[in-house]
User: Fold these one by one.
Assistant:
Number 1:
Amino acid sequence: MSQGDDGEPPGSALDDALNRLRESAAVAMAAVEEIPEPNRAFEQATALREAIDGLVGEAAALRARMAARIYESEKLSLAALANRIGVSKARADQLIRSTKSSQQGKADQDG
């Protein structure tokens, strides 16, 4: 079976979700374009951007957690992790630190 650009089999749940996300974004952008009053259209475009920015932040945190998952499960060095995921060693370190930092913050809130 061949794989899609994301490494998942074509037609996977992730492919479907990503397609729905793209379609939803296109519908939202078209809705903003159709708002006749310019100030209201701008406000709604801002709201859309803020919503997408939130999703980008959540996706970045997810990506960092998945890098940490690889790092921990395979007991890799930072250099090996960087090579594995195609980033610089400094960026791999940032991803691991951000995950540890968010886990520490969560532990502080829970405890």
Number 2:
Amino acid sequence: MSEVKLFVQNSRAIYDSLMRFQDAKINLSLKNNQISNYQTQVTGCQIQNSKLRSDANDMAVRLFDANEANQILHRRFRRADIERWAWRIGAAAILYLKFK
């Protein structure tokens, strides 16, 4: 009979322990769900990061190509400008010699 009496005396503490255990199980389940959600977010961020890095590399290549094309055009325009000045100077020299 003493075991039953002891059980009844400790029933409140046992009940509190069981309730805390239930709360801990619920909290653990919620935390596991949060971890799962965070892992999904991390995976999404990693995918986005790799896409952004790829885009940055593509943009760097396009920028390099654009700079190369710009340098080629600049050289062509510079050559044409020099040629125009040479024709002007040549024409001026011919006119000067002709009317001298």
Number 3:
Amino acid sequence: MTRLERRQGGMTVPHRDGLRTGEVAEQAGVNIQTLRYYERRGLLAEPIRSTGGHRLYPADTVALLTVIKAAQRLGFTLDEVADLLDAGRRRHPSADLQQRAIDKIAEIEAKIADLTAIRATLTEVVDARCDSLTNCTCDDCPIPFLTIGTDRPDGDPA
């Protein structure tokens, strides 16, 4: 059996489109450890092995990795990506992607609100010319330095 053959049902079958680990990683723009991690997580099927023990991935693995990385850039976690891929593999239309996208938009909107508040406070710090986190000498310090660390999350004094 050559490097481009595989066993199927007790027979040796040519395997012409197998990509080795390095080829997949390079084409998909990920590192080899990412491929192995995705295999362990079940995002990628375990590839067949050459007679020399090298992993041989199907050609569509590169496209699948591109989809996974795109979903991550959209803010989906690997667990969420795995669920979406699983739903897609069942080949039944599902509103799951729609609902997850709606939920992700709400999550992003909340993060934007938080970041906007942080930006406004930092702008006030710059405008007030604050000079120290613990002993600010500016007249109108926008951050309540004296209360930082003095209250617990439940509002009670520390």
